[in-house]
């Protein structure tokens, strides 16, 4: 790094809106869980100046936190919302950077959620 470069660090956090600590407010305020988790990460890491911390907060039902969405949009702007190497695996439903990566993030999130119960079931019923 040199000459005023600023590095960014991203910390992914997934919040469950139906958790007892969130459910009342999450039912009333859109993205409450993601924004609460975002603030928790900012408080945890504190001031990282001159660098930038972007907590990538996602809700288990697919809601992207405000800063997570801004980061995705910033990346899309950097690529003029065009696909590059991703084009080989893009489909008709993912013709742009935003649609492609938005879908990838949601599929990864759902896959991770499915893995949790699956791994617990394997512990309960060993082969």
Give a quick rundown of the structure.
The chain has helices spanning 23-26, 32-45, 66-78, 97-124; strands at 8-15, 52-59. By secondary structure, the chain is an alpha+beta fold.
Would you write up a description of this structure?
This protein has a two-stranded parallel sheet with strand order 1-2. Helix 3 (66-78) packs across helix 4. It starts with 7 loop residues before the first strand and ends with a helix. The chain contains four helices and two strands; from the N terminus they run βααβαα. It has 127 residues and is an alpha+beta fold. The model has no long low-confidence stretch (mean pLDDT 85).
Sheet with most strands: 2 strands, parallel
In spatial order, strands of the major sheet run: 1-2
Strand content: 5-15%
Low-pLDDT runs:
none
SSE order, as H and E? EHHEHH
Query: Whole-Å distance between the termini?
Result: 51 Å
- For the secondary structure, the number of strands is 2
- pLDDT averaged residue by residue: 85
Q: What is the structural class?
A: alpha+beta
The helicity comes to 40-55%
User: Radius of gyration, rounded?
Assistant: 17 Å
Overall geometry comes to: globular
Count of helical stretches: 4
Features:
127 residues; alpha+beta; two-stranded parallel ribbon; 2 strands
Q: What's the SSE blueprint?
A:
Elements lengths: L7 E8 L7 H4 L5 H14 L6 E8 L6 H13 L18 H28 L3
Helix pairs in contact: 3-4
């Amino acid at each position: 790094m040199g000459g005023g470069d600023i590095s960014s660090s991203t910390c992914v956090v997934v919040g469950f809106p139906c958790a007892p600590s969130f459910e009342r407010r999450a039912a009333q305020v859109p993205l409450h869980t993601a924004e609460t988790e975002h603030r928790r990460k900012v408080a945890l890491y504190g001031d990282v100046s001159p660098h930038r911390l972007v907590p990538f907060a996602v809700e288990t039902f697919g809601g992207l936190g405000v800063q997570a969405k801004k980061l995705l949009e910033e990346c899309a702007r950097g690529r003029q919302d065009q696909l590059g190497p991703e084009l080989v695996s893009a489909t008709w439903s993912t013709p742009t950077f935003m649609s492609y990566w938005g879908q990838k993030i949601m599929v990864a999130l759902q896959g991770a959620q499915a893995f949790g119960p699956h791994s617990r079931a394997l512990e309960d019923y060993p082969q």
